[in-house]
Amino acid sequence: MRIFNSSGKGRRPQRRISNAKGRRREVEWCDSMGLARRPNYIECFPSILHLRAFAPSRFISLGSNEGSKRRRVGFFAAALVMGIAAAAMGQTAPALPNTVNRPDHVQSELSSVATTAPVEPPELPDGMTLEQVLDHSARTPPPSYPNPIHDDELYAFTLIKQLEYRAKDHGHDQLGWNAYGFIGYDLDKFWWKSEGDVSFDGISKGESENDFLYSRLITPYWNAQIGFQYANDWKSGDYNDRFSGVLALEGLAPGMFEVETSLYVSQDADIELQIEAEVDLRLTQRLVLQPRTELRLYAQDIAERNVGAGLGRTDLEMRLRYEIRREIAPYVGIRYSFLSGETADIAARAGDPVDEFFVILGVRLAF
Asked: Mean pLDDT, to the nearest integer, of 4-28?
């Protein structure tokens, strides 16, 4: 006996149902199960004959006649048990939470407010009416009364931005400085600024400028300043002093640029405009690169200072500092200064250099 699959080919023995009784049993079983009548085959297994009935997308197997009856009974019993279990679970399953009858956020807030106990007014001091209490509270507190908000503290700060030795490519080396400081409150402060350089190699010459200003904070990042300047320059014991009125605007521009513009009107009505700008580029938490530029413009020729109208001197600087602490930072850098316009022509006729290049070594201090 050889077994075939539905295509007539197979690997194991099988035999086709040929007797009428077996075919009739198959048809009756398919009709009872509601299956379509398709060719069916009997596969031979040890001691069991399996009848495989084809149905859409599934197979149902039967054994012999008595075994098939037992299997049908077991199948219907299992289905009955599963149905009873499902009904029991449906009766004992807990009900899902329902929020239909629950109040929303607004109703909860209103209910909490409605249940809040009324606030009773505080008791008045003995022997005083409400009007007397209000008048007393409106008075200025005594000097011994502590300040409830410390928003008007006195501040003081000093920053020596540049304290440096400038080695010149040709000519005399210089010692230069640039510093400022202030003392005052949040809005109103007194500022001082000092800048200059001096040469000790060979002849003694130098210059200094010192500003004394009242500063008022006009926006969160800008201060308006007004005051006066004392400036002097000397060469081989020849001193020239001058006083000027100052109107300045100092602050922080977009891009974290520190900008300072100062307008000077001297005692001889000479007008000068200075513009300074610098920015800190943090390479690391301690290493900072600082480009800086300074422009000086003059409204007219000033013979005693050897300057002409227009753009006078321009300084381009670059410093790289290492902040050991925020208050102490040594640095190295370069500086290139050159004259322009009428001022350059005056210097060339006098035999003075038109441009200068310096290598810088200095320290920055704050306290």
From this structure: 52
Rounded to whole angstroms, the Cα distance separating 52 from 164 reads 103
- What percentage of the chain carries pLDDT values higher than 90? 49
**pLDDT tens digit string along 209-255?**
999 999 999 999 999 999 999 999 888 778 889 999 999 999 999 99
Q: How far apart are CA 289 and CA 321, in angstroms?
A: 7
User: Running DSSP on this structure, what letter comes out for residue 302?
Assistant: B
Task: For residues 54 and 282, give the distance between their C-alpha atoms in angstroms, rounded to a whole number.
Answer: 81
Q: Tell me the C-alpha distance between 292 and 122, whole Å.
A: 63
DSSP string, 305-326: GTB-SEEEEEEEEEEEEE-SBT
Element (H, E) at 226: strand 222-235
Out of 101-105, 178-182, 299-303, 325-329, least confident range = 101-105
Coil, strand or helix: which one is 68? Answer: helix
Q: How many CA atoms lie within 13 A of 39 on its CB side?
A: 9
CB 210 within 8 A of CB 194: yes
CA distance linking residue 125 with residue 103, whole number of Å: 44
Choose between 292 and 52: higher pLDDT: 292
Nearest Cα to Cα of residue 180 among 162, 166, 165: 162
Query: Which residue type sits at 121?
Result: P
Give yes or no for a contact between 345 and 352, defined as CB atoms under 8 angstroms apart. no
Detail the DSSP E strand segments found in 24-99.
Answer: 41-45, 48-55, 58-62
Q: In this structure, are residues 215 and 188 in contact, taking their beta carbons and an 8 Å threshold?
A: yes
End-to-end alpha-carbon separation of the chain, Å? 110
Average pLDDT for 195-216: 88
